[in-house]
Amino acid sequence: MNGELKIADFGWSVHAPNSRRTTMCGTLDYLPPEMVEGRDHSKDVDLWSLGVLCYEFLVGVPPFEDHTSHKATYRRIAKIDLKFPDYVSPEAKDLIKKLLVKEPEKRLRLSGVMSHEFIIKYNS
């Protein structure tokens, strides 16, 4: 394994690299704005999910979780209502904020993730 952690959940996966999808599927807390708003979506949803996972690994809860209702969680996702505890480092915040971007095409690409200062700092 070489100290690598691999996470996979293929329950809702689709291999369609050149197409846009319109179905809404997945776990509520991980849905990107384009799914919540019923817009077409592409593989860029995976970049959003990576940002949600990074946040959850550091904080212990999903970033947009709202216990009052599913509708409230949807609203927080659509507005990118993102709050960080004080103990999250500036580098981690920067990475997560660059992944949790409303416009899918503006999300940090995987190459940018791998060269981000937060990743480089801990990938030695």
TrEMBL record:
The keyword tRNA processing does not apply. InterPro entries: Aur-like, Kinase-like_dom_sf, Prot_kinase_dom. It holds the Pfam family Pkinase. GO terms for molecular function: ATP binding; protein serine/threonine kinase activity. Coiled coil: none annotated. ATP binds at D9. PROSITE patterns: PROTEIN_KINASE_DOM (PS50011). Residues 1-119 form the Protein kinase domain. The keyword Metal-binding does not apply. It comes from the Eukaryota. Keywords: ATP-binding, Kinase, Nucleotide-binding, Serine/threonine-protein kinase, Transferase. This is Spindle assembly checkpoint kinase. It comes from Boothiomyces macroporosus. The gene is IPL1.
